[in-house]
Amino acid sequence: MKNELPGAISFDNTEYAFDYKSDKELKKAHFLFKIMGTPALVNLGLKITPVAIKMHIPFTKTIIRKTIFNQFVGGETLEQTAKVADKLEKYHVQVILDYGVEGGGNGEAGFDQATEEFIRVINYAATQHNIPFMSIKITGIVRFALLEKMDAAMHTSEGTLMKRYYAVVESLSTEEREEWHRVVNRLLKICEMASQKNIGVLVDAEETWIQDPVDALTILMMDTYNKGKVVVYNTIQLYRHDRLAFLKDSYTAAAERKFILGAKLVRGAYMDKERKRALDLGYPSPIQPNKESCDNDYNDAVAFCVDNLDSIALIVASHNEHSNLYCTRLLDEKGLPHNHPHVHFSQLFGMSDNITFNLAKMGCSVSKYLPFGPIKDVIPYLMRRAQENSSVAGQTGRELGLIEKELKRRFKK
Predict the structure, then answer these.
(1) Which residues form the domain of 281?
(2) How far is 275 from 159, CA to CA, in rounded Å?
(3) What confidence tens digit (pLDDT) does each residue in 29-47 have?
């Protein structure tokens, strides 16, 4: 399919895409994507980097900081993200701040600390013109094993998601129930502050075997805070074959409870892990049978949301050019503005600049997802980015081709 549809936005303008990068920065990005286009080097890096960080091998952090970290992360501290956010604002690109914590390493104290950090992000974002959203991972504020136990129990229960959720909470031991209530209170604390400060909270998706309680908890937060405005968004991974139906069920629940459904649509981040676990444990894979099925469900989900913008707030979080173009075309067909208050586009910092900056140039509400945190804490995120760019068909080649096109354009001037 061509990148350009009649009357639509084109993502081939590299001058717009890379205007925010100096020649030196562009050459560094070219070097990095060149490396990520070599699977053997990526696989080696995936194996040795976490070990090198853990063993405090000299210069490891320096090398990471000057390469993959600078490409995909906004800084080690919240304050360091300001420089990136200010630069993006000049090009009408907003920021989704993401504190890169994945799983509390210090038990309840670690979960409480992560909660306070999320609140600090909200308070900081509220002081900035360019940061309407922040992102959280529920695994940053709850024990993974508790989510796993609840999810397994929910799968053996009957009824709607919320009916199964309440039944499972009641079945927990007294100690586990108290632990879960602390989790609920942490998220309530985060969402309450976000509501007061008018900052959106994007709840990240997790692995399928812990996702059900995360979904239920997120719906509870939407039911509380998405009355009349949108504070909380759930992340829906369309590489799962059941998620289009889940989106429609969530919409039904929102209509019944009279809250606005916040839906951040992604394809997904755990495909290899999900398939392997399903194979190892002998259950049907939750992943779409092929890319075409995933693409069809993603675009159907976009269309469903655009058809119901009165009660759905949509974030098209995609690096797929056609899906982004498709959404703008649907808006055009309905006579709706590209900056509709219930439509937002987003891509990861360091990737798909041709999409982000061309959308911004055409007046769309668009952002970069900007992680920050100490290098040791964002290593899992960085490893996923390296793996994604090496495994997604055509991703690295597309990035390299665009960068090379822009470098040639600049040197011809």
Answers:
(1) 104-317
(2) 27
(3) 998 888 877 777 767 776 7
